[in-house]
Fold this protein.
Amino acid sequence: MDNNKDLLAKAKEYSSNNVDLYDLLQIDSTVTEEKDVRRAWRKQSLNYHPDKLKDAFDPEKWELIETARDILLDAAARAAYDNARKAVLLRKAERDRVQGQRKRLIDELEAAEQEGKRQKLAEQEKARELERERARLAEEGRRRMAEESERFKRENLERLEREREPDEYDEKLAELQQRLDEKRRLKAEKKARKKGGVVGDAAADATTPAGAKTPESAPKPAPSAAPPKWEDLKARMIAAQRLKEARKAAEAGQATEEEVKQKYETVQALDPRNKV
């Protein structure tokens, strides 16, 4: 091609279409000698010559090789081609760089997302483990508090029982015990006297005239109501004392309502007439 304008147009067209003229002639872009360009063109033209390829001849390929030779031998056309080709290569390199950065960012985002999911799952599992441990400790604390409360109540009741000072009930109980002992002693003496006086009574009956009234046969006054037994009175006093102690313990917070109720049931068993 002798027309320089046509060569410039072809050079821009090939560079825009990313046609590598150096690759067509199998030479390096640094080759500038005309003889080197022609030698490379001659070698490639032999490979694509119609006499060699015959029916497989490609006229477009042949024309492209011819045009590549003309452009690379023309200084202005080659400069236009090289500049346009450099711009295309720069744009391609920039696109590759941007795509590489984009791919790297996408990979980093995906990796960060996966790591975030993993950390979230780990935190959720840790939270569940903490909740289970908290529930276990709470249950253990409630159990120990219940045991300590029960032990504290039991020790306080035992201490109150040991440290309880005598009061009016104790004095009355002591007095009742003395009277009960005295009653038993008198009863035993009376029984002994009664056994010792059986023979004397029989002799007196033999000397008494028939039909005569003896003091024993005289009508006796009706017996008065029997006094309450001392054992019952003592039981009622003990029941009242226990009930009083249970109430004191409840007021001091050392006994529960259930324990007071149990005390009351015990009192009722000892003396059903004792009402709370």
